[in-house]
Amino acid sequence: MTREMTGAEMVIQALADQGVKHLFGYPGGAVLPIYDAIFAQDNVQHVLVRHEQGAVHAAEGYARSTGKVGCVLVTSGPGATNAVTGLTDALMDSIPIVCITGQVPTHLIGNDAFQEADTVGITRPCTKHNYLVKSIDDLPRVLHEAFHIAASGRPGPVVIDIPKDIQFATGTYFKPKENPHTGYKPKLKGDMDKIRQAVEMVASAKKPIFYTGGGVINSGKAASDLLRELVKLTGFPITSTLMGLGAYPANDKQWLGMLGMHGTLEANMAMHDCDVMVCVGARFDDRITGRIDAFSPGSRKIHIDIDPSSINKNVHVEMPIVGDCAHVLEDMVRLWRTQAKQADGKALGDWWKQIDKWRARKSLAYRQSNEVIKPQYAIQRLYELTKDHDTFITTEVGQHQMWAAQFYGFNEPNRWMTSGGLGTMGYGLPASVGVQLAHPGSLVIDIAGEASVQMTMQELSTAVQYRLPIKIFILNNGYMGMVRQWQELLHGGRYSESYSEALPDFVKLADAMHAYGIRCEKPGDLDHAIKEMIDVDKPVLFDCVVDPAENCFPMIPSGRAHNEMLLSGAAEDIEEAITEEGKVLV
Amino acid sequence: MTAPTTSHYPAKTINEGIVTHTLSVLVDNEPGVLARVIGLFSGRGYNIESLTVSETEHQQHLSLITVVTTGTPMVIEQIKNQLDRLVPVHHVVDMTLAGNSIERELAMVKVQGRGEHRVEALRLADAFRARVIDATIESFVFEITGNSSKIEQFIELMLPLGLVEVARTGIAAIRRGPGEG
């Protein structure tokens, strides 16, 4: 079906045809025709944010919690540049986003016009793909193509820059087609020969481990189910990156906890000592590998990834399989069953005994206090009191994020929204707005730090405006905690600019913003306060005052290997544990 | 400063063998496609030794980018995968790996001189099958095609004979035999 309409109408029509229900945006001169088109319909609900960065993070939360594409609409110039942080975040974490930016009219492009910025130039390195639409005839194709590119293969953000005259121009609109792009064809099915060999490797393993990542989440619910099936079939231990939490249930006995810089001892030691590593949808990031030349030295590695450029980038693997996690896992499970494969029970038994010894070290242990709330305790209580609810968790970036990853148990995919690759402070609050919008009846909690939350604080107004009862659970230690921790470990305890001076009174702030404020300072009051937070049907700003001196352990210090972790009891050895070379690393 | 041996990042590959590869990249000829390719190289710290680009199939709006790059084998592999990941890129062919390919470059070389130098320049040009495409009483512009080393050699010989300037096209490459790409 084709129809004559204006460019602005095409934008909204295309969104509706792509199944978009919510659009996060902020108006401005160069997108007024599109806002006019929004005004004239009610298929797509617009959500007015307070800053364009918030719009992209909200769309990311929306996308991450639903598996759908998140949509953003911002104006030219500052609207587009403000969106850049969110776009980069989405690129790093492979989140499908379509971001429509207004542009000055075609004849003014390159003229340094008011609110003009070279949006496609600026966003080229921080998007999966981007377009500047210079003819109304291209617009319907580009709109549909953008959704296809954002959502397929390794997902990512796509920007469509639309000059104002194109929004006014009239053209012929058509509905989405089956194969919108001729040159772009991501490979979904893995090579069967390689999968067969991989299954052989898995079956022959004596000390195996599954190491999984965000790719499993992106691949959809089926991938998580297949992963669970394969892990159960083999009886192998499994660990995951920050981005992959929830793909495998944290309450299962084969789960070792997160790995990496702040991962558990058992996960990292098992990675170091394993003989066969099955990496599914993870990318051997530097937070995971630690010292690269000492990374899992004795193992043969299988790497399943949809993006060929992720393979052999950091770590050489013996068995690369390019394909979508769900497709490849399905083949592996089928082969395992049809060939009646058995894991080496005796060897596996010994391996689990070794793992249990590492587990017995209780690497996440901390010293409990009756005087002051330990941040770990706060997360534990939050988990216990919310686990029976339909809960979604977002975070900001820093110590609180790591504690959330360590102490909050995720048993389902798409329940955990965090900024992993880019590490964007200020991600969590707007992301929770997007999550709550997608899941109106659910309990959505942003686990935050008092420093991070101030970066996108204004989005609390958005939550209030749309009656989104998000809970912002601030672990307030009065410091940029992770910065302070590194300064303590690496810079002689010189806490340069890492103290959160002149903090607002969060309870009064909540009040002023028509939200609900709670402060809790004593461990004994915590449960009651958390229950109050859950029960309030309003956005809540929860100021949880925690031990300002607590550090996040275990930790692989800069420049060290997986088997050289620092545990919390060993804190006094930290200064020596970090080499001179390690200090130059971030 | 030497690279830290204990790094969270891939160890700097200093002494590993650096190799030169010629890549043929077939792309949609759309605005910004060259910026995408170049941006990828600069953004990820890859090298460009030579770059040529031109539309080769007008009907389908396809351009061929030929890029000569250097790096360790692992980096070269990365470059190919990263290029292949760009949406407008149809395919990337490693001409060096494919072996059996021909590489050519064109250069225009301006030489100024009189007397014996001038005669010698002409004589050498003849030996290299370079053509004179412009001449004045005291200068020549030679046109020379060939592989890069031949052109390098010619330029070096012209240096003492009054070399003024050189303009080079960069490398174009194609596979031998009947097959495509």
Describe the protein.
The complex is a heterodimer of chains A (586) and B (181). Chain A folds into 3 domains: 2-174, Thiamin diphosphate (ThDP)-binding fold, Pyr/PP domains (Rossmann fold); 192-360, TPP-binding domain (Rossmann fold); 375-545, Thiamin diphosphate (ThDP)-binding fold, Pyr/PP domains (Rossmann fold), CATH 3.40.50.970. Chain A has 23 helices and 20 strands. In chain A, the strands form 4 sheets. A 6-stranded parallel sheet of chain A has the order 3-2-4-5-7-6, with helices on both faces. In chain A, strand 17 (443-449), helix 18 (459-465) and strand 18 form a beta-alpha-beta unit. In chain A, helix 1 (7-17) crosses helix 2 and helix 10 (221-234) packs parallel to helix 13 (325-338). Chain A starts with a strand and ends with a helix. Mean pLDDT of chain A is 95; it is low at 570-575. With 181 residues, chain B is of the alpha+beta class. Chain B has 2 domains: 19-98, ACT domain (Alpha-Beta Plaits, 2-Layer Sandwich), CATH 3.30.70; 101-175, Alpha-Beta Plaits (2-Layer Sandwich), CATH 3.30.70.1150. Chain B is built from 5 helices and 8 strands. Chain B has a 4-stranded antiparallel sheet. In chain B, strand 6 and strand 7 form a beta hairpin. The longest helix of chain B has 13 residues, at 73-85. Chain B is elongated and about 55 Å long. The chains are: A alpha/beta (586), B alpha+beta (181). At the A-B interface, helix 12 of A face helix 1 and helix 2 of B.
